[in-house]
Design a protein that fits this description.
This protein is an alpha/beta fold and about 210 residues long. It is about 30% helix and about 25% strand. It contains 5 helices and 12 strands.
């Protein structure tokens, strides 16, 4: 009996975690093909450290992860899904057959406001570092960290605000730092207890929160 053919479209955290879990759970009963436009995977959650000269986000080789878990890597992206024939078409025009398909292509971050510093990850670390230099040099006496409305992941805003306050305090500076958020409470999506603790940390650093 041939192995169940699984195609995973997406080489981000969801796609890679699914690959690893599926191999551990199903073993050789499945054949796995990972479709990823990137050959590298970076843990974006750690990218908030880079503007502060802290350890950089680690970069992983997607091909090595696939090899370690017996999966085939296709350096390509998903173009179309054909449910009737259980096939997909890739951006390069290749057709792949599947028994099960997991689409984990993730979201594409984009600036929510014009004329502001947007932090989406590693690609914006240099811009955030420039903002820090303005604070350290005394050219910026106030900074607002804004959580945009709509679908968003607000955690990095709070991390950046807290680390900026910590850096300023270490230099004997006291800029006014404000977090503006449409949430009912800071990081309310994590529950009341977590939100209260975050609010306490913000207060300890003198960070103003406007909801």
């Amino acid at each position: 009996m041939s192995a169940h053919r699984v195609v995973i479209a997406g080489g981000g955290v969801a796609g890679l975690e699914a690959l690893i879990a599926l191999r551990e759970l199903a073993g050789d009963a499945v054949s796995i093909t990972l479709l990823s436009p990137s050959r590298e995977f970076t843990i974006r959650a750690l990218s908030v450290q880079e503007p502060f000269a802290k350890p950089s986000a680690r970069i992983y080789d997607v091909g090595a992860i696939c090899a370690d878990h017996g999966a085939e890597l296709r350096h390509d992206a998903l173009e179309a899904v054909h449910r009737e024939t259980r096939t997909i078409t890739t951006m390069s025009g290749e057709e792949l057959v599947y028994d099960s398909l997991l689409v984990a292509i993730g979201a594409r971050p984009s600036p929510a406001f014009p004329h502001v510093t947007t932090f989406r990850g590693v690609q914006d670390a240099e811009a955030m570092h420039g903002l820090l230099q303005d604070v350290e040099g005394g050219w910026s006496s106030s900074v607002a960290f804004v959580v945009p409305p709509g679908t968003t992941w607000p955690l990095p805003i709070y991390e950046l605000a807290l680390m900026t306050a910590e850096r300023a305090e270490g230099l004997g500076l006291s800029p006014q730092i404000t977090v503006v958020t449409p949430e009912h409470a800071p990081l309310g999506l994590f529950g009341e207890e977590a939100s209260r603790r975050v609010d306490d940390q913000l207060s300890e650093r003198g960070i103003i929160v406007r909801t």
